[in-house]
Amino acid sequence: MNFNRPARLLHWTMAGMILAMLFIGVAMVTSLAHYDALVALHRPLGIGILILAALRLVNRWRHPPPELPADLPGWQRQAAHASHILLYGLMLGLPLIGWAMLSAAGYPIGLGGAVVLPPILPRDPTIYAWLRPLHTMLAYALFGLILAHLGAALMHGLIRKDGVFSSMALRLTTPRSR
Amino acid sequence: MSLLNDLTGASPALNPRAVLLRLGAIGGLVVGAAGAFAYVGGWFSPGTLTQARIVDRFERVNGPHPGFRRNHAKGLCLVGRFESTSRGERLSKASLFAAGQITPVTGRIALAGGQPYAADAATTVRSLALRFQLPDGEEWRTGNNDIPVFPVRTPEAFYAQLLAAKPDPATGKPDPEALKAFFAANPESATAAALIKERRITSGFADDTFRGLNAFQFVAGDGTETPVRWAFVPGQAETAESAAQTARADKNYLFDEFETAVRRAPVRWHLVASLGEAGDPTADATRPWPAERTSVDLGTVIVTATEAEADGNCRDVNFDPLVLPAGIAGSDDPLLSARSAAYAQSFARRAGEPKAPSAVHDVPAAGAGL
After folding, report:
1. Is residue B369 part of a domain?
2. Which residues have CB under 8 Å from B227's CB, separation 6+?
3. Which of A39, A83, B92, B229 is the most exposed place for a label (fewest CB within 10 A)?
């Protein structure tokens, strides 16, 4: 049993976007020369991730993921379950917190051209001061979680060889129908 | 089956050596990804100049003033509008330049420096920051100073100058040797400092000219880009700063006079764009453009009220020079991105700090109730 094709496409598209997003985020806060260009990428990319994460959640509800192998130890099963909840929470939560914190700071949230998102929180510097470090902390948490996810996926693919990795693998050629 | 295979749940097809190799490869990949992240985040290059270090230096030079801007700390809010002349329409598609357009404006006049309680002084650089609120959530924010050119060309020179120009507590003046060394290392700043020193000092904010200093690009509806530098030129005639003014005991005389002037009649500035030509420096704010460049009067900023800094007004606005509407874009000037970064850092720090009242209070209307 594999993830359906939309799930696999969404997974790998978002993997690229989220990794790019995390690297842009960590670079922009220490880069004077490229700060503006990086922030200008960070905003629309974040909204893109938010939209795709919502689509993905809907797809997951309609097409539940394949079962984990029966011989997987219980703690690994629980870790997989918990980490997926956290991954979804952060994929949705980080862009929302970013949007909310920029709203609280009173910044126009430009996505490019003349497109500006409406604020989702009232303007309040105190809220901004609270959300801004939270956004960073959760971004680090997401990066850590992605590293754990990557390590676990490779354990399945290279060592356990139990079909978990290949259930999400993106095949360039469509497999011939049986 | 080895212990290793049992522990990892490895496929029986793999011998322990292969498991070990593969584990090593996975570990290497994960550690490599973490290392790349740390590298991009600057953990391995502590010497690089960052926005945090710039704001740290402001705090070190000026001392702690929680809740206040780290630079241009002493200020007064203003409210008004912008009336377009329609002459900017062919240069920029930004809606505020369209014929007959009236755009709400809020802003802030301030004195440069990180001392929120410093007494007003004639030679302190004055600033005019404005926030134009365009339809559909677009904004144009701009910070402008009453000097002809900016004193430094790069963020690194700015950082060095902050320390070199720090007043010695004993003399109240910067260490001449430190300044000499700074100018020797940054000769363009010596030239700029001379131009800045020569400027005419006017009697107050209302008759002063404020310049954007950095170059920007105007983008027209057909995509044509024009390099511009803008200035806010006073609607009223300039008068020179008088000795009587300078000798006043009122520590806020510049702000108080502006408040009084606005109460008497709206204060106006023409927004005049100077159009750059081939060869005009766009990435060097220390060098003026030739005076004969075409200038276009884009419209008038009309200030109708002032307001002491308080919750929710200009105090809580970051006048980031790269908050721009479609139709205005940044240039290759390295100061712009650095300003944007440092302003955001200053804003994030002060946002969470307790607020003290500004030194500049609302002046009670003269003769009110009489």
Report:
1. no
2. B215, B216, B217, B275, B276, B280, B282, B331
3. A83
